[in-house]
Structure formats: C-alpha cells, structure tokens
Amino acid sequence: MLENYNLADVAALITVIGNPTRMLEAYGSRGYRALNIEAGMIAQTIYLVATASSLGCGAALGFNFLAMNEALELAGTDLRSLLFIMVGPERRNNACFNALFPMERAASVE
C-alpha cells in the first residue's frame, strides 16, 4: 500500500471489484473504460457519503493487486479488485496544502 495510508488507522476498507472479462465481452474494447467509469462512480458516492458523515476518505491505486486478489479469494475467478477506498475518522495534524499561487507569480501568468 501507499505510505500515506495506515491500514491500522482505517475504520473500513472498501474494495471495488469488477469483472473485466464480462465487460469486454459485452461492450468490446469500450468495456474496460466502462468498468473504470463505474468504479469511479462508486468511489465518488463513497466520498460523498463519507464527507456527509464527517469521515475521512481516500482511494488507493498503488497496491499489489495480485496479492490482494488472492487474499480476497478472487484468484481463479473473473473478478478483479479495481480500487481500495479507506474510510475513517480524519487524522489529526493533517498535512497543510495550499494550492494558491503567490500573487507575483499569478500576475506574471496573465
């Protein structure tokens, strides 16, 4: 998993699972894209529910999906883990992030 998530602090780990083979059979080459769109819609809904519940939420793509598929007993099936979403109380002392440009830099962009 990624360094910025600690599974010991997570209240819930939600795994989005899909069947790429079936999607490719049903929709051809667009099936993979459709499957990822559906996974994204699920993730967005979980983010919205977590925010409404005053919980933190984070999606992770940087994982060993082969090991996770085996741990979830998906090996030998057409199902695959697509995305992991961690939900739980917000961490204290969150990182400070400011996306605003300094004024002199913003003026030079115009």
Automatic annotation (TrEMBL):
What parts of the sequence cross the membrane? Answer: none
Give coiled-coil spans as residue ranges: none
Q: Where is the Nitroreductase domain?
A: 3-88
Q: Which GO-annotated molecular functions does the record name?
A: oxidoreductase activity
Matches recorded under InterPro entries: Nitroreductase, Nitroreductase-like
The protein's name in its UniProt record: Nitroreductase domain-containing protein
**Phylogenetic classification of the source organism:** Bacteria, Bacillati, Chloroflexota, Ktedonobacteria, Ktedonobacterales
